Amino acid sequence: MSDSHFYPIGTPGQPWGDAERAQWRARQVRQRSYADEVLQRVEGLRSRFDVEPYGEVVYADERFPLFAIRSRNWQPGLPAVLVTGGVHGYETSGVHGALRFVEEHAARFAGRVNLLVAPCVSPWSYERIQRWNFDAIDPNRSFRADSPAQESAALMRLVAPLRGQFAAHIDLHETTDTDESEYRPAVAARDGKPFEPDTIPDGFYLVDDTGNPQPEFQQALMEAVQRVTHIAPADSQNEILGSPLFAEGVIRYAMEELGLCASVSGARYTSTTEVYPDSPRATPEQCIQAQVAAVCAGLEFVLARA
């Protein structure tokens, strides 16, 4: 392990304790407003959708109410689709892609699909443009019983009454340059492990579920997204981030085993989107549009098979 790769908190080879977590937390700076950028837009949807509080994230003296957007006149006979964004708060297009989808596209699916959208699962992290939560925990490795992450536990409580009733769940994410420069070194330091450098794929890709692969669903999303932005190529090992490709831009993770958000719904069709906002070939607007395209394609796929 090169010293140049060691994160500036903690002692090499030793996992963090409370002091190191507090030191890490002190480095996090509020950079944007969840209330102004997310909650105001959610409030603006009340005339067309049911806006449902599903909990609150409380850290020190900060409180963040959590809201989901639900189809008005939910009809039990219709296919249901769950859309989640902002599980990692720093993944901006996931949050704004989910909101944009509801604002501009959800109406055309009214009466055909039951929608449940949680646009910003991790508000503390959204404000700090951070992957982890206040406790230096990755919410997207925490969707399991007795979750240590408030954000993950709240979403699981929201979804639990409907688990198994969803046809699809699309979880909107990004892979950024800071994954390599900040977060992977931080994970290694936190866990007392060596940092192993990797490369960031330039472009959009999808993560399917190893335990429930749905290649046709992934292909439908990919075809829609590639009209908006470019698809990440495989590396020299025909992999993306150490995982083999099963189709262009598609890898697989063990969703439930890893505690990933896409495992919470019990849906037949699941996908985690990964947009690359740092590419010179993509703008922030394209990243949002790519997320919207993936959601719309997922809904059309479900309807074609309903």
From TrEMBL:
Chain ranges of the Peptidase M14 domain: 30-302
One annotated GO molecular function: zinc ion binding
Residues forming the catalytic site: E274
UniProt cross-references to InterPro entries, sorted A to Z: Peptidase_M14
Listed GO biological process terms: proteolysis
Domain of life: Bacteria
Extent of the signal sequence: none
Family named by the database record: Belongs to the peptidase M14 family.
Protein name: Peptidase
Lineage, top ranks: Bacteria, Pseudomonadati, Pseudomonadota, Betaproteobacteria, Burkholderiales
